[in-house]
Amino acid sequence: MRSSGGIIARLKATDDHFPAIFFNAHVDTTSNGKKPQLKEEDGLYSSETGFLGADDKAGAACMLELIDTLQANPSAKHGTLEFIFSTQEEVGMLGAKMLDLSVLTARFGYSLDAPGEVGTFQLFGETHLVLDFTIIQDFKKSHISAINVARSVIHKLKQVHFPQSMTHEVKEFKGTTDSLGSETVFIQMELAAFMPLEEIMPYLEEVKQVFF
């Protein structure tokens, strides 16, 4: 079953004595705007800078491995297994909200995402801000294009001292021009962190100062 919210896959039960169970992982990931610097230790790769995408591709990989293992071992006994690959989790769990969960036969399952003891869950998520900025330049008057202004602004964003735990990324950059010589550039930026909004506000103000 596929929708814009993701994919729900199902393995039929090999033994009806076992209950139906679902597993969930989201297939989208995020970035903190930094290039990963890979470190390898005992065959495992990590990065102290950019994200490698284990959130939550690690969970999706576990689900795919389980499917492959069970299909390769048809004698293994299990109930109906349902696998939910959701999208757009990093922007407010939009994918999960679009999925038709009424098609599930499982009444309980496991989300392969957040850390912690099995059976626990998180009571809060990260604060997520979407910032829209528009730059309008009259090239006939200023002789400086809006694109060049935007490039300068994005370069100055590197001077903002974001904490390592905060993700920040320019998600959209596009421009238009009209016959009168006016140029418009639209920039969309995202900030996200596991901290209260009031703790993010100082960094938001730094970003605003770069633009204004």
TrEMBL record:
Residues 7-161 form the Peptidase M28 domain. Its cofactor is Zn(2+). This is Peptidase T. It comes from Listeria fleischmannii FSL S10-1203. The lineage of its organism: Bacteria, Bacillati, Bacillota, Bacilli, Bacillales.
